[in-house]
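User: Structure please.
Assistant: Input sequence and predicted structure:
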Amino acid sequence: MNELVPTWTEAQRLEALESYGILDTAPEPAFDDIAKLAALTCDAPMALVSLVGKERQWFKSELGVGMQETPRSMSICASALREKELLVVPDLTRDPRFADNPLVTGEPHVRFYAGAVLRTPEGLPLGTVCVLDQEPRPHGLKEDQAFTLRVLARQVMTQMQLRRAILEREKALSEQEDALEAIRESEERFRVIANSAPVPIWVTSAAGPRGFTNFAYQEFLGVSYEEALTYDWRRAIHPDHLPRILKEQVAGESSGKTFTLEAIYKRADGEWRWLRSISQPRFTTHGERNGFIGIAHDITTSKQAEHDLQQMNQLLEERVAEALTKQAQTEETLRQSQKMEAVGQLTGGIAHDFNNLLAGIVGSLDLMRMRVAQGRTQELERYIEGAMSSANRAASLTHRLLAFSRRQPLAPRPVDVNDLITSMEELLRRTTGPSIQIELGLAAGLWSTMCDPNQLENAILNLVINARDAMPDGGRLRIETMNTHLGPRDVAAEDEERPGPYICISVSDTGVGIEPAILDKVFDPFFTTKPLGQGTGLGLSMIYGFAKQSEGHARIHSEVGRGTSVKLYLPRRQGAEEEAPARQPEQIEREKLGSATVLVVEDEEIVRSLIVEVLQDLGYRVLEAADGPAGLGILQSQEPIALLITDVGLPGMNGRQLADAGRERRPGLKTIFITGYAESAMLNSGKLEPGMMVVTKPFAVNALEDHIRKLMRS
């Protein structure tokens, strides 16, 4: 007994068995011949080709047993599935596993069992070729009988493989009746030849001569048993194959391992046949090699069919390629449909939010207008605060959309991530609630990074909320930081990731996990695993966009039932520059800075008028333009322009193009860009030149004044 710890599951085994489509099929001579040969070789009155299913064992072929199947609970073959190759039970009544088996205690009163495992090329056991006897055999099987049983098991699997291959090809070429008919004819031709072809078996001693040959061996060569023992097989091999086979034979026998030979041999009737021979070494009880056991089978049919099969394969490949093309088109259509559905869901939610915010703004402004008309100005402050609150919330919603699209304007600065997470700890605990245990594993000596701390806080908070939602019954959430270095093998070139030093922020939970089939989609825009109405699919996409904008990466690992881990990689801050101290809020006195001329280029009239009024309050002389070409005309005039304030998205030419063209005539022209997002055309490969700055919409009036003062004083 050589029982193994299985590397397969029962579900995998049953699925493999089902894939052969052989259960409950009609008897076939090829399998019946194998059962008869097993009984004959092992001198046994009963033999089976047994397939072990979920609740029963079914006999593809049976000899002397008198039944077609038994419940699995009575199956002796089921115990053989864990064996490497062969299960031999000399006396079933003396083995506690089988002593009470109805097949042993009742008809047919089996006492001896020997079964060779039917194993797929992937190593999955499906059943056995077994022999049974009503008399015990204390010494089990002879070696040649055991070998023959194993060889016959492989022959059964060969038949099943060929049977399945033919069935699969029939299915794949269902629309091609001529091709299907050719496959049927080829299968039938192979069965006729295989059923009529003998299976030669021989045994050699350590000295070299054969000590045994079976009838099939003798019949193939047309010699008697005595002649077969000393027959020079080189006389039967084709002259073109002889030099190669002699060399392979010597190498195979010298290796002491199982070896295979393929060549053309001349049959007794003069016909040349392709044979594949397999020789397996024999060993004494002391482990010394004692010759070989060999078996040969006819592969002429498969050789002859190669050309036909190649043609059929080519046709099949063309069909498959055509089907894959159609499938890809269908999948693309489905993806577009899903995206549009997600966009509709997203825009519906955003429209609802914006309508609520606009209601607060418009309602507050209407009440202000009514109160002013009524002379009740003492209540205006409350309405102003309401309108500003709604406007700021609208700006926050816009920034979330920009983060999703990876176009949010970031304000990167040196960040100590450990300090940032520590400062958030109380907020995170309140967010998750008492049923979730939060653990912090913050690495000592953590490098600093350059990123927008507010956006990093939002990313961590979103990950914690996702983890909380994945643990509705409570669990453990762990936030860790560490220094790491990603090498060329650790980064994905197709995602433009770069190797180098990074800090890693890991947020892990013990929640429900994510199915492997959808794990690679979680960073996609609009994709969500939450029920309809509970997620827009922007959360992880915004986090991914923030990481990419910060020149970092985001990765996710998840196992169903064990939890999810999301890791953010942010690049290590290079250089020793210190973080500039944050400005404290202060009241900036409105002061007159002179009468310099400022050019304002903005296509939105309301915004342009607002900027012009701010500049005039500051004492500047202001020129206006509604588009890029008009602004360029003023820049190319003789006007003494000290500052250009321009929107980025202008009709005609964008703001960055306008500023660059203006600097050709006015080198060092100070410029403030106004934008709703970080337009790539403005950044000029991600860089702003000296004397340039960016103001994002929406902006407060005092913030705009502050930017103008800073730039004019620089």
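Residues 112 and 133 are 5 Å apart (CA to CA).
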